[in-house]
Specification:
Blueprint: H1 3-12, H2 14-19, H3 24-37, E1 42-44, H4 45-61, H5 71-80, E2 84-87, E3 95-98, H6 100-112, H7 120-138, H8 141-163, H9 172-213, H10 218-234, H11 236-248, H12 251-264, H13 268-273, H14 282-332, H15 394-404, E4 410-412, H16 413-419, H17 426-438, E5 443-455, E6 462-473
Antiparallel strand pairs: 1-3, 2-3, 4-6, 5-6
Helix pairs in contact: 6-9, 7-9, 9-10, 9-14
Keywords: Coiled coil
Pfam family, one: DUF3375
Protein name: DUF3375 domain-containing protein
Length: about 475
C-alpha cells in the first residue's frame, strides 16, 4: 500500500465515502436495523420506505430533527451514491438491497464495536484445524495413511476412555466461544455473497457494453463473452462458489444442517446468550443469496440470447437490402447487360421449385345426405372412459406445500411426495413443478437430477420419473 493507492482509496472507495457520509449515523443505524437485525437480504421500496419513515419519526420523538426529507428521497439518494442497490426484479416496484461497499462498512464497524466476550481459544483451535487440513490434504498417499491411522488410534482411545466412565463435557465458556465464532462466520459468509454477485453483475455490464460498441461478427463476439464467463467461473472465487452451491443443494447436507440447528437450540448455554436468528436462518439466507448469484448469471445468458436474435434480424434485413440493390442495378443497366453472358454458375444438378409445377386446386367433395328418417342407434364402444377424466387441483397442491413449510423453512419435492402420495400420476408431479417454476421463491436446480417413484393405485405398478431437484421455500 503506497501513497498513491491510499489516496485513490480515499477519493474513490465507496466504503470510505460511506464512513464520511453526511447522514452517517442514520445510514449505519437504519441499515443495521433493517437488514442485519431483521435478517433480510432485500426489501421492496414500499416496505423499506415505510420502515425508514417510522425510524425517522422515532428519532424526531427523541428530539432529533436533523432529517427533514421524505423517506423515499433518502432511499433514492443513497442508491445514487452507491450505498444501496436499486433494481427491478419481477414486479414494477423497485427492490433495494445493501451494496458490497455498505456490507464492508457494516462488517468493519461490527469489528470495531468489540464484544465484551472474545473467544481466543476457539479461534486458535479453528486456526490449528485449518493448518492441519491444509497439510493433510496436500501430503502424499503414505503420509495420509499414517495420519488416518493416528486419528483412528486417537478415536479408539477416546472410545475406551468413555467406556471406562471418563467422559467430560466442554465448559459453558467453550460452548459460548464456539457459538459466537459460528455466528460471526455466518454473518461474514452472507456479506461475502454481495461481492460475488457484484462480480457477475460487472461481467453482465461489460457484456452489454461490448455488444453495443463491438463491430465483431456474431461468432467472434460470443466467443469473447464466453471466454470472459469461463474465466470468471474458473477463478478461485468461481470454483469455490460452484462447490459451495453443489454442497448446499445436497439433500443430505440440508437434513444434517436442520438436525444440527435443532440440537444447538436445545443447549442451555447457547439459549442463554442467543440474541439473533442469524444461525437459525443461515440455510434460507444462503439459498436466497446463492440464487441471486445464479440469477445474475442467468441475466447474462438472457442478454446474449437477445443479442443473437437481434443480430439474426439485422442480418436478414441486410440480405433483403442487398437483393433490392442488385435488382435496382439490373434495372439501371438493363440496356448494357449482355443477355448471353454467364453471371452465375452452380455446382451439381439444379432443381428449381416452380410455382406452376404445383397441382391445381381441387375443391372438396360435398357429401350429400339422403332425405331419410334418422333412427336412434346403439353404441358398441365403451364410453365410460370419457367420464373418468380427472382434474389436478393446483390450489390443493399449493396447500400441501404450505402445510409442510409451516414448521420447516424448506422441503424437497421427493420428501413432499412421501407425505402426500400422488394419486393422479405424472400430471400431479407436473403440477408441483409448475408451482415451483411460477413462484420465484422456490428453487429448481436443473443441474442435478433425482428419481421419483410413482405408483399406479389401480394396477399396483410403480414407475420412476427423472426430474430436476426441486426445493420449496417458505
Amino acid at each position: 500500500m503506497n501513497y498513491e493507492k491510499a489516496l485513490s482509496f480515499y477519493k474513490n472507495d465507496k466504503t470510505l465515502q460511506l464512513l464520511r457520509a453526511e447522514h452517517f449515523p442514520l445510514l449505519v443505524a437504519f441499515f443495521h436495523l433493517a437488514f442485519k437485525q431483521q435478517d433480510r437480504i432485500s426489501y421492496l421500496q414500499s416496505e423499506l420506505q415505510s420502515l425508514l419513515g417510522d425510524y425517522i419519526y422515532a428519532l424526531q420523538q427523541q428530539g432529533i430533527n436533523d432529517y427533514g426529507k421524505s423517506a423515499v428521497d433518502y432511499l433514492q439518494k443513497w442508491a445514487e451514491q452507491g450505498y444501496l442497490r436499486r433494481y427491478y426484479e419481477r414486479a414494477d416496484e423497485p427492490v433495494y438491497e445493501l451494496s458490497p461497499a455498505t456490507e464492508n462498512a457494516l462488517k468493519w464497524l461490527e469489528d470495531l464495536n468489540k464484544q465484551q466476550f472474545i473467544g481466543t481459544h476457539s479461534r486458535l483451535i479453528q486456526f490449528f484445524h485449518l493448518l492441519q487440513q491444509i497439510v493433510n490434504t496436500t501430503s502424499g498417499p503414505y503420509e495420509r495413511i499414517q495420519q488416518l491411522q493416528e486419528e483412528r488410534n486417537k478415536i479408539d482411545q477416546e472410545i475406551e476412555q468413555i467406556r471406562q466412565g471418563n467422559f467430560s463435557k466442554p465448559s459453558s465458556t467453550q460452548v459460548k466461544e464456539n457459538y459466537f465464532l459460528a455466528e460471526e462466520t455466518a454473518r461474514r459468509l452472507l456479506s461475502d455473497f454481495r461481492q460475488v454477485e457484484e462480480n457477475f453483475r460487472e461481467l453482465d455490464t461489460q457484456t452489454r457494453q461490448t455488444i453495443i460498441k463491438s463491430s465483431l461478427a456474431k461468432a467472434d463476439l460470443l466467443d469473447n463473452v464466453f471466454q470472459q464467463q469461463d474465466y470468471l467461473w474458473n477463478t478461485d472465487q468461481g470454483k469455490s462458489f460452484k462447490a459451495f452451491w453443489e454442497f448446499l443443494m445436497s439433500e443430505q447436507m440440508q437434513e444434517e444442517l436442520e438436525q444440527l440447528l435443532e440440537k444447538i437450540n436445545s443447549i442451555p448455554a447457547i439459549v442463554e446468550i442467543k440474541n439473533e436468528q442469524t444461525v437459525n436462518r443461515i440455510k434460507t439466507n444462503l439459498v436466497d443469496a446463492g440464487d441471486k448469484v445464479n440469477r445474475s448469471n442467468d441475466g447474462l445468458i438472457e442478454q446474449l440470447r437477445k443479442f443473437v436474435e437481434q443480430k439474426n434480424l439485422s442480418e436478414s434485413r441486410h440480405i433483403l437490402q442487398s437483393i433490392e440493390q442488385i435488382e435496382s442495378l439490373l434495372l439501371e443497366h438493363k440496356e448494357t447487360i449482355d443477355q448471353q453472358e454467364v453471371w452465375m454458375e452452380t455446382n451439381g444438378l439444379f432443381k428449381p421449385s416452380l410455382t406452376m409445377d404445383r397441382p391445381l386446386f381441387n375443391p372438396p367433395v360435398k357429401v350429400a345426405f339422403e332425405n331419410t328418417a334418422i333412427e336412434d342407434g346403439l353404441a358398441e364402444a365403451d364410453t365410460d372412459i370419457l367420464f373418468e377424466q380427472f382434474y389436478v387441483d393446483i390450489d390443493l397442491l399449493r396447500n400441501n406445500v404450505r402445510s409442510l413449510l409451516r414448521h420447516r423453512s424448506q422441503i424437497a419435492l421427493s420428501e413432499l411426495l412421501n407425505h402426500y402420495k400422488p394419486t393422479k400420476g405424472v400430471a400431479e408431479i407436473l403440477g408441483y413443478m409448475q408451482i415451483a417454476t411460477n413462484e420465484g421463491k422456490h428453487i429448481v436446480n436443473r443441474d442435478q437430477l433425482e428419481y421419483l417413484t410413482i405408483e399406479n393405485t389401480s394396477s399396483g405398478k410403480k414407475y420412476r420419473m427423472e426430474t430436476p431437484v426441486i426445493i420449496f421455500s417458505r
